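Thread: "does anyone have the structure for this chain?"

Original post by V.I.:
We have the sequence but no experimental structure in hand. Need at least a predicted one for the grant figures.
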Amino acid sequence: MAIRYALVAAGSLAWALASCSPPPETAAPETSLPALSGTENFVVQVAGTEIGALSVDHTSGQTAIAYEYRNNGRGPTYNETIRLNEAGFPNEWRVQGATTFGNQVDESFLLDGTTANWTDATGSGSAELDAPAIYVAQNASPYGLWLYARALLADEDQAIAALPGGTLQLTEMETLSAAGADGEEPITAYALSGISLNPTYILLDADGAYVGLITPRFSVLRDGFQGADEMLRARAVEYSAQRFEDIQAQVARNFDGPVRVDNVRIFDPQSEALTDPASVVFEGNRITAIEAPGSRQEGETVIEGAGGTLVAGMYEMHGHLGQNSALLNIAAGVTSVRDMGNSNEVLGELNNKIESGRLAGPRIIRSGFIEGKSPFSSNNGELVSTQEEAIEAVRRYGNGEFHQIKIYNSMKGEWVPAMIEEARALGLRVAGHVPAFSNADQMIAAGYDEMTHINQVMLGWVLEQGEDTRTLLRLTALKRLPELDVADDRVQATITAMAERGTAIDPTLAIHEALLRSRNGEVRAGVVDYIDHMPVGEQRGAKTAWADVSAPGDAEAYYQAFDKIIETVTAMRQAGIMLVPGTDMGGSFVYHRELELYQQVGMTAPEILAWATYGMADYVGQADELGSIEAGKLADFFLIPGDPTEDLKAIKTISMVVKDGTVYFPSEIYPSFGIRPFTDAPELVAP
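Reply from O.Q.:
Generated one for you, tokens below.
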């Protein structure tokens, strides 16, 4: 199976540079496509477990689509109607329903002659077309991907201008054989680019009909192809790996001999201050010397720091790492990620690729995910049905590859003490959510080393007996927080217990801010510093609410709930509880916002920098090798033009990252994702 692949940066970059003005001219389609007929049915799976369905009906003269799935107690529900013109472009498109976190969707598109009008969660737009363009729905089922692909296949260069901006492009990957309802049949995989930061991989049969969507963990496959799910998802892993391997070959720089980063000031996490100007020398993956600026030796490669600041690589402490986010974390100065639950096989394979140098990515600290089986299970890691199975799952994680176990929502709270006892015997830490129908006080008493997500702790103070946190209630109930008094005895008892037992908290502030304060049509605060650099699809998402705030009073209650979260985390910090910075949103740009939010908790910029570097290296037992820039330590650090001790926002403008001795210039990485770079690369002088 030969893979036919080329990097498709051009389409993505066009999205980054486009606005909601009329798209660029393209040739008119030469081919009329046949009308669609009949019905189609697809199965939604995650990691091989069926979680939902997609059904399509063309019999009414239009295409009607119903799409819904539930994983981890949540998922989208969309109902769509689409009318296509002869070229296969939508003339009308209506989407109604709700997103994964409940935001109501009522999206519409209408093409009347040459006038296009649309309304999505960000607002309304229009364009006068002097050439054909295809509308890309903001919220739609995966069936829309095939409609784009169908039109693209009929186009001469398989590239079509898109609304509200940019260009869609289709690239053939390979033809392979998969078992369907009628036996083995050939299917062709394609990469569809121009919608988001990375291509989406879709499958068509020999007749060009839709077979489905594949990702490393998630698939939507035509009914009958479910048995090929694992094989097809493995191909998605390989397509993504090859894309990133190609990018790595273009952007990773490894040098023979020593490399000197000259004329920089180093952030010292011990003093929480910058040093005097210096130069840092590394060779291979080790820092060999820190010397006076201007020092030069024969045979060195010199990178001119131009008076900027050098900071040790940062730790994202709540990741669910995948190939798509690995390189973007590196570009953001995040050189270590604690993965908080994943497909063990997928993450293990990714870790091997990073360690072998095939792919760029952060150092991975693995957490063993353990979930109870229920209708609301997160289909991840190990799923168990009894206490004995739960203990066995802990034992399987005691193989030396895992730093800790993570307990999840559908676990039985009464099983947790035995799980913790086994974890202790194996030298594993214990972190996690609060199991449904339990509360944080019980998990703290049972021996959790770390509570995961601030809402998991705070829900115990506002929920009624018997309310089920395996559902979206664990998020929607946060609108009750404004009435909470942090001085209340229940709140103080929990905080005191955490402080006395040394129980840490991974609050994930940025994801709570996004959930509680995002609003349709408004750019949320967490993205304002970088969103203009992103592709149009990302810009649309940044102006979309997560939660349903349509009921009277809900918008204000959700907004104020975040103030209560900040107040609670501030009280925890004042009580001496260890805070741990993590995003649960992929890290990268969001990690910068996560750190920035801790200024609202009372931490200073230098304190935050020291905590995100040396503090977390020490927390996970890696401070002998990482967390600060010292001779003998591993070469993990990043260069910024500004002074982050004066303004923490300086970490958002990174000109160079060194991870394990490999040099990356983000300005060379970002165009492959359709991102406009934030600053130029430093000057490099060969020996």
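V.I.: this helps a lot. The two ends are 43 Å apart (CA to CA).
O.Q.: and The first helix runs from residue 9 to 17.
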